[in-house]
Design goal:
With 92 residues, the protein is an all-alpha fold. The protein is 77% helix and 0% strand. The longest helix is centred in the last third of the chain and has 40 residues, at 44-83. Residues 73-92 are annotated as: Disordered.
Length: 92
């Protein structure tokens, strides 16, 4: 149902773009439709800031995972010497 509405809206917008008498109506209609859209046009600066924020989040997650890995390795080192005993050479 939403696909049909979107197709009809897009067809209407395409028809209004080509005709000059409805240029004022088309602009108002396009603005109203754009307000309902969840997507937004970003400038290059806004897009760069968005990507930098995402990169910062990924760097933080990597740092947290590195800390967890080092903690697990330290815990493994603490438990390894107690559980590892040198095997006896020769038969008893």
């Amino acid at each position: 149902m939403l696909g049909i509405i979107a197709a009809v809206s897009q067809t209407g917008m395409n028809a209004m773009q080509g005709s000059t008498p409805f240029s004022g109506v088309a602009t108002g209609f396009r603005n109203r439709i754009a307000a309902l859209s969840p997507m937004k046009s970003l400038s290059d600066q806004e897009y760069e800031e968005l990507l930098l924020d995402k990169l910062l989040k990924v760097d933080v997650e990597i740092a947290v995972l590195d800390d967890q890995i080092s903690d697990l390795r330290a815990a493994k080192e603490q438990h390894s010497p107690a559980s590892q005993r040198s095997p006896r050479d020769g038969a008893s």
